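Worked example

This section walks through a single chain of length 82. The input is the sequence exactly as stored; nothing has been trimmed or padded.
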Amino acid sequence: DEALDIGQHALDGIATVSEAAIARAIGWLAHHHGVRAEGAGAVAVAALLERAIVPARFPVVVVVSGGNIDDERFLPLAARGR
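Given that input, the structure is written out below as tokens.
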């Protein structure tokens, strides 16, 4: 609750994405950039790919952190990212 309160005052907006969009972003990152990202690390990329966020300016920088995803989950998503 505290983080949301801070965010509402400090950010221009908040976007949400589906679990399916996050899964697609994980696959996209793997295929196009060779990055192994967990779901939380791929959320911002998912928002951009789904156009839940449309940047006012370019280039856009997204920090992708966290590769804590096991092979059982990652490999099928990476294969779909092709």
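What to look for: Helices lie at 2-10, 19-33, 39-49, 71-80.
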